């Protein structure tokens, strides 16, 4: 199916069964229009956590509601005449965006967690069926998403596979540091005659947030004889440039609802054509089982498919920005680096990685006097910022490295980092509000332990 934007025109709008096309916008979206598109956001909240849940513009929400209503108006017609054609169109647009060879390589699934289940289920079968030897390894970064770790537990380790965990150095100064640690992990996985059957590589780690040199790591996997490479790129599309042929992985997943303006939840899973790709199946089995992963994924029973159907409208929305998705990505990157440096300078701390290793998110060190000495402390501060200051931002606890003390709030070791995001709706005021909130906590001499006791007291009163 051709990309209808190729002729400079916008994508489909449906009036019953007839299709018409809106004229292409003659000018780029204005700041006031951006404010309108995201006017449903709660007023007065510094929403600097786009990375967790994404953001959906009002025009896309309206398009989604139209598709939901179309299904409810005449379900048989929707299912037999519209659904599969429209999903194919969405897959085709994504195929062109990521430079896949064929649309059959692109499946739409709910999220990156579903994609991980698809890939790891296949690996688990290989162990259970004896195609892989017990003890053969899966290699992953220690900061892999928790759901991925649980999927490995559910599908791989219970079938006899072993797991090698590579610690990501953080704070990190260069790609070379990441590459060196990854090579050590592969060597450990291959020790004693074992094989590394799968490497799971984050394109952008979630917490702490770092852009990983994924193409270089995939090349190393090929050189070292790793069977398959799965790139978990939940944050990637819309945040970094994605070319799946250039990256070279066997499997690549990215959410479309984080940085690509789709409503929750939808993701694409790219599976490079190979013999194994024909043996991949959606974990929810429907009557489409055996017709290929893309077709299986396009029907998993009666549910709301509207988030997959509005992908063409999202392309329309993005085309309203100068430079399209690449223009948005560059603007967000430059802005988040500027805001991160502003915060670090205000607090006398540091960034977690150099700007070139940051996407549209960046890690900023928090004042040591806040006493963030555990994951519980980090969560407590996050809760306090949200409930008392109207600041939504994730907080990361980073254990001190060897040779650092960091066991008391006066040791001066940075053990707390904030992960700030920047999306098109953010303004400087959002980050100033965050800066001032932290400054007030420091000025008042509050620590995470004190905040924890305060929250516990409120809950028990």
TrEMBL record:
Coiled coil: none annotated. SUPFAM superfamilies: PLP-dependent transferases (SSF53383). Residues 85-276 form the Aminotransferase class V domain. Gene3D superfamilies: Type I PLP-dependent aspartate aminotransferase-like (Major domain). It comes from the Eukaryota. It holds the Pfam family Aminotran_5. Keywords: Pyridoxal phosphate. PANTHER family: L-CYSTEINE DESULFHYDRASE, L-CYSTEINE DESULFHYDRASE-LIKE. This is Aminotransferase class V domain-containing protein.
């Amino acid at each position: 199916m051709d990309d209808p934007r190729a002729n400079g025109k916008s994508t489909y709008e449906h009036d019953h069964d007839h299709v018409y096309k809106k004229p292409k916008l003659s000018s780029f979206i204005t700041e006031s229009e951006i404010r309108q598109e995201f006017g449903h956001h709660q007023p007065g909240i510094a929403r600097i956590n786009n990375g967790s849940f994404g953001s959906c513009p009002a025009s896309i929400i309206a398009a989604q509601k139209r598709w939901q209503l179309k299904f409810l108006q005449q379900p048989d017609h929707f299912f037999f005449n519209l659904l599969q054609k429209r999903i194919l169109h969405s897959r085709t647009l994504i195929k062109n965006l990521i430079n896949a060879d064929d649309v059959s390589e692109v499946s739409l699934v709910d999220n990156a967690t579903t994609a991980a289940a698809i890939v790891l289920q296949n690996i688990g079968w290989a162990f259970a069926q004896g195609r892989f030897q017990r003890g053969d390894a899966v290699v992953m970064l220690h900061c892999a998403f928790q759901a991925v770790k649980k999927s490995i537990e559910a599908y791989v380790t219970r079938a006899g596979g072993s797991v090698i965990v590579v610690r990501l150095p953080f704070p990190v100064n260069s790609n070379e540091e990441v590459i060196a640690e990854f090579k050590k992990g592969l060597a450990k996985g291959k020790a004693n005659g074992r094989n590394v059957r799968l490497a799971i590589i984050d394109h952008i780690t979630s917490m702490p947030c770092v852009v990983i040199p994924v193409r270089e790591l995939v090349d190393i996997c090929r050189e070292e004889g790793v069977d398959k490479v799965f790139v978990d790129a939940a944050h990637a599309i819309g945040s970094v440039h994605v070319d799946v042929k250039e990256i070279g992985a066997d499997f690549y997943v990215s959410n479309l609802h984080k940085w690509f303006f789709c409503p929750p939840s939808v993701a694409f899973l790219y599976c490079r054509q190979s013999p194994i790709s024909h043996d991949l199946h959606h974990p929810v089995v429907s009557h489409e089982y055996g017709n290929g992963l893309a077709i299986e994924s396009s029907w998993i029973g009666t549910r709301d498919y509207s988030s997959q159907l509005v992908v063409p409208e999202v392309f329309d929305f993005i085309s309203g920005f100068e430079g399209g998705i690449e223009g948005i990505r560059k603007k967000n990157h430059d802005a988040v680096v500027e805001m991160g440096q502003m915060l670090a300078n205000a607090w006398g701390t540091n960034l977690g990685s150099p700007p070139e290793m940051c996407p549209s998110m960046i890690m900023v060190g928090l004042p040591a006097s806040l006493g963030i000495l555990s994951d519980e402390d980090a969560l407590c501060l996050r809760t306090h910022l949200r409930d008392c200051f109207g600041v939504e931002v994730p907080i990361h606890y980073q254990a001190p490295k060897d040779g650092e003390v960091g066991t008391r709030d006066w040791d001066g070791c940075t053990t707390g980092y904030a992960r700030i995001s920047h999306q098109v709706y953010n303004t400087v005021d959002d980050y100033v509000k965050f800066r001032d909130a932290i400054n007030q906590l420091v000025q008042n001499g509050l620590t995470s332990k004190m905040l924890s006791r305060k929250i516990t007291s409120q809950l028990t009163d």
